[in-house]
Specification:
about 60 residues; mainly alpha; 2 helices
Length: about 60
């Protein structure tokens, strides 16, 4: 898996036995064409769309 698009992707990784992962705003194997602002926006979107949902899920368990 190269893209983590949301909570369902995280759940699939968890179901596969993944205990840790690292996520970045871009593919490190390709040239960096993103501006700093684009990277910040990508990180904020990931925080809102994935991390916040995981936090709520963990708080409810």
């Amino acid at each position: 898996m190269t893209d983590i698009g949301g909570l369902d992707d995280i759940r699939r990784l968890e179901d596969a036995g993944v205990a840790e992962l690292s996520a970045g705003a871009r593919n490190p194997c390709e040239p960096d064409t993103m501006t700093v602002e684009q990277k910040i926006q990508a990180a904020e979107a990931f925080a809102e769309n994935v991390i916040a949902k995981l936090q709520r899920r963990c708080a409810g368990s």
